[in-house]
Design brief:
With 187 residues, the protein is of the alpha/beta class. Helix content is 32%, strand content 17%. The strands form 2 sheets. The chain has a 4-stranded antiparallel beta sheet, covered by helices on one side. Strands 6-5-7-8 form a 4-stranded parallel beta sheet. Strand 7, helix 7 and strand 8 form a beta-alpha-beta unit. The protein is globular, with a radius of gyration of 16 Å.
């Protein structure tokens, strides 16, 4: 019965509040405005530019990651030009043991009994803009045990898999269905 009481591994608790994060970055990120995202979407997800010098995310667009209770887990920083490497930089100690956007999608998943799984943050924002707010991202092309546990706890009976239509996306879809087994209805 231990398996039924398992909780996802949580990363080290941070004392950084959402308000502190929002005060440290310039929201909305013009980089993503220029890519066609709506300002209110970027504001909802706290996406902004770190303009402060000598910071780990200096010059990058910062995407804060929260758990389902809006507790700060870490962040990822997106390069804003081709000279910055790597393209995506994760904050120290960040693990992909969370579903991106679950803090916002949680109530919509419960209401609809359905969750839409996508690969990345931008995919979640586009779905949100289209009115599909029961969407979460898996940070790439595979789902891990902690993410699966969060899916089970979300109240979803139906999983709509919208991975990219490339080879990696096809493999991701197959991997998700295999890993989740008979827990959900898949679309």
């Amino acid at each position: 019965f231990e398996v039924f009481n398992r909780e996802p591994e949580r990363q080290q608790s941070h004392t950084i509040t959402r308000e502190k994060i929002r005060n440290r970055i310039e929201i909305p990120a013009k980089y993503y405005i220029n890519r066609g995202f709506k300002a209110d979407t970027l504001d909802t997800f706290d996406v902004g530019l770190c303009a402060k010098k000598k910071q780990p995310m200096s010059g990058r667009v910062v995407v804060p990651i929260y758990d389902e209770g809006y507790n700060y887990i870490g962040c990822v920083g997106r390069a804003t030009n081709g000279n910055m490497n790597p393209k995506w930089l994760h904050s120290k100690g960040f693990r992909k043991s969370i579903l991106y956007g679950l803090n916002i999608a949680s109530k919509h998943i419960k209401e609809s009994s359905s969750v839409i799984l996508v690969e990345g943050q931008g995919d979640v924002w586009r779905m949100h803009e289209a009115g599909l707010k029961n969407c979460v991202g898996i940070f790439g092309s595979s789902i891990n045990d902690d993410q699966l546990l969060l899916l089970e706890q979300s109240g979803a009976l139906n999983v709509i898999i919208l991975t990219d239509s490339d080879e990696a996306g096809t493999k991701a879809c197959d991997q998700i269905i295999k890993k989740c087994g008979r827990r959900f209805n898949y679309y």
